[in-house]
Automatic annotation (TrEMBL):
Belongs to the thioesterase PaaI family. Residues 60-132 form the Thioesterase domain. InterPro entries: Acyl-CoA_thioesterase_PaaI, HotDog_dom_sf, PaaD, PAAI_dom, Thioestr_dom. It comes from the Bacteria. GO terms for molecular function: acyl-CoA hydrolase activity. The lineage of its organism: Bacteria, Bacillati, Actinomycetota, Actinomycetes, Micromonosporales. Gene3D superfamilies: Hotdog Thioesterase (3.10.129.10). Keywords: Hydrolase. The keyword Repressor does not apply. Pfam families: 4HBT. This is Acyl-CoA thioesterase.
Amino acid sequence: MQDTAPPSGASEVAGRTAAHDMFDADVASRALGVELVSAGGGFAEARMRVVPTMVNGHRIAHGGYVFLLADTAFALACNSHGPATVAAGGEITFVRPAHEGDLLVARAAERTRFGRSGIYDVTVSGADGQVVAEFRGHSRTLTAAPATPGPSNDTAP
């Protein structure tokens, strides 16, 4: 699953996408130091430095933080198309540990979209290019609830 580089030209998607707006509102990811590098056309790249509060009892990066970075890149990729999209599921395989001070880079790539569903692969690597984890996410595009005609509940009897 290492082939997550966008095809030629896809990494040059210019301008803001819905993913940028979503990330601006993502307090959790930004509070943990996740940075949006790029997003567009079903691809995204995000990065995060492993700080002391992210290290577990084995002195390696806690897997939950690695998952969070991968999940954020996944969310950015599947929201780069526009309609609000959420995770329907995700799984991760940890390949090697990351350590305090490491800069982790997550590259997400769309594999397929069908109907309101999608499948995305994310590779999390260290700055040296060594793979830390592989993530696969399943997305679901939300639809607006249909308006229901009828009286408002605000009216007095």
